[in-house]
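Hallway conversation turned thread

IA: we were arguing at lunch whether anyone had actually written out Sporulation integral membrane protein YlbJ end to end. Turns out nobody had. So, for the record, here is the sequence (405 residues) and right after it the structure tokens. Reply here if something looks off.
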Amino acid sequence: MIQSKIKTALLALSVSIMAISMIVLPEQSFKASISGLNMWWEVVFPSLFPFFVISELLIGFGVVRFLGVLLEPLMRPLFRVPGVGGFTWAMGLASGNPAGAKLTARLRQEKQISQIEAERLVAFTNSSSPLFLFGAVAVGFFHNPTLGFIFALSHYAGNIVVGLLMRFHGSSAEKKIAKSNKQFILKEALKALHATRIQNNKPIGKLLGDAVISSIQTLLMIGGFIILFSVMNKLLFLLHITTFLGTILNSILSTIHYSENLSIPIISGFFEMTLGSQMISQVEHTPLLQQVIVTSFILGFGGFSVQAQVASILAQTDIRFKPFVIARIFHGFISAIITLLIWNPFYKHFLSSKETYKMVINMGEMNKDWWQHMFNWLEIYGPLITIAGIIVYILVYAKKMTKLN
């Protein structure tokens, strides 16, 4: 009872401080809010919206169930999740956070996976996209395209290790799955596809409308969290709370002989990984290895902003959030350890050889130009795509409400 009261008092005090800070510092809060909004409507919405809509349609048409049957022999023994987890993993990797959580929650709502399986699946299917790791972090922040391979290898290998560890989650509470003796897996996959399509007997127009509504509702929620944490991060810095937490972190960094200049960027990264990664790359008089290891940890942890987005998505189901948080902590440390292990053999020797380095640099320059072109394109047309998407959402939702009335 006492702990509950203390928790209530701390939450009320924290929210009150944030509200007062926004009143006292309106200009800084407004600029931070605009910065978060620009990130959402220029980049996040245009890049995630097509993935979300297509994913909804693939689930509705039974394609995901089809792939699930085909991938069952791979996903079940390795991660103890159904084959549909392979589709979720691939889409999460391609589109980035929090697509894995969105698809996992959708599969759980469709009852294609159990609660325990969903908690295992969401733990390792949320990751940064290759475009973000190579284009934004390696090239954009560190100006070193070869580091993209280090970040990608440590990040995705760390996710696989987390998936292998999470296979033991809920073992005691899970019912044993009977092994299938079916030999013609393609035939069974086609049957599953057809059965799912027949079971979901919605017209194509209805299915498309529901996909648009569901996708945009999720993206609006994501946008709200991006803006909220952008303002929160700025206020924490202005109130010197980030500096205070940084002094506490300094003692830990000095113990492991890491630069104390990394403390404030790490604290910022705990809240928002993009900002934290950028700040880490700008720290001076710090060994590059330390910067890369800390960045790998932040990318694996994901930041409270991404975790809040995932928590909001999972709240629509019975999937518990606690296993996801534990998995993110594991992912952060595992990615950092992998980075340390591969640094000398992979980065210093393999990537630094003349032929490899020349090839990687050429690839990096192409990647840099492509990323810059895409960023400029999103900067020009991204807001138009966002506005068009919201208008379509309003029209579809209004039509749906009219039919219900």
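OS: looked through it. Residues 26-169+183-404 form one domain.
IA: good, adding that to the notes. The radius of gyration is 22 Å.
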